[in-house]
Design goal:
Length: about 190
Amino acid sequence: MSLADDILKDLHGGIAKTLDDLRHELANVRTGRANLHLLDGVRVDYYGTPTPLNQVSTLSVPEARMIVVKPWEKNMIPPIEKAIRDANLGLNPQSDKDLVRVPIPPLTEERRRDIVKQVKVKGEDHKVAIRNERRDAKELISVAEKDGDIAADEAKKAMEKMQKATDDGVKKVDEVVAAKEKEVMQV
């Protein structure tokens, strides 16, 4: 395996990592539908320790606009309710004797458009990250060619492969953003 192949392999790894990060960030973006990732950042006071909500209860989505939180201990219902309210997610939990229901209010058209703008900004940030990966790979190939570690024709082929990988990565970012945009705008 040549040095150019190693550089391209690293580039592909960096692009894949960037795409995974984008998908992870967009999973936390609120849409009009119930999604358990909405509550990922919620920490409950569990005997004095801030604990992730999913470590003190079972979470489920029984219907499109409802998340149900079933605590493992009934005395955890008030702290869970408080933690969800304090998380500033715009959610209003309602407790029963055994569980906490979290209705997901529908988004207004204006709020949907704001969320789409945020999604597009995240997409652009990740495109920049992919282009930065390309720039770093290009510098490595140029230095290797100058030092005589890679032949000129091999460097040219590597540059072409690098550009194709970058174009594919940017295209995938666009696809992920478009899918999230469609999901957000869906009523």
